[in-house]
Amino acid sequence: MTDDDLLALLDATLGETLTPAGFSAAQGGWDGVTFFAPQRAFGEQFPWLPQASPEEWQRGHSTDLTIDFDQTTGLIARIDLEGRSLPSTVYAVGAGALSAELKTAYARPLAECLPVVAEALETIFREPDPAPAEPEPAEEPYDGGPVDDYA
């Protein structure tokens, strides 16, 4: 598989999720692939992600999704979203089981791994459900008698 074939495969498999999230087409090759999204727009669109508010020294013009390949096997070695691993980001949004599945998927051929990567990306880009409001604690009616906190 050539670099161009790899980029076409990644765009075909992940583009459906990455394009609406503001990312460019894949760039690079077997030595590493990067997708770019404008950083400010990314932060506004996905405020629940840790990468939405980068540290001052990390701020730039783009948010990067990088895929590194094992140069011996051709399998995915690592996927980072703006310097944080994709499994860590998936875990941060409350999808621990998918995070673990993603880590194990790296050991599988691309045809089997990329659908799990796509699911992970869909999961982190999906706005989380609002947290349910905590119920107000029920107050016991005061009967007017003395209050003895030391009884």
Summarize the structure.
Residues 126-151 are annotated as: Disordered. This protein is α+β, with helices and mostly antiparallel strands and 151 residues long.
Query: How many separate structural domains?
Result: 1
Strand order of the largest sheet: 1-2-3-4-5
Q: What is the ordering of alpha helices and beta strands?
A: HEEHEEEHHH
* Total of DSSP H or I helical runs spanning 4+ residues: 5
Model description:
The structure is a single chain. The chain has 151 residues and is α+β, with helices and mostly antiparallel strands. It has one domain. Helix content is 37%, strand content 17%. The protein has five helices and five strands, in the order H-E-E-H-E-E-E-H-H-H. The chain has a five-stranded antiparallel beta sheet. The model has no long low-confidence stretch (mean pLDDT 85).
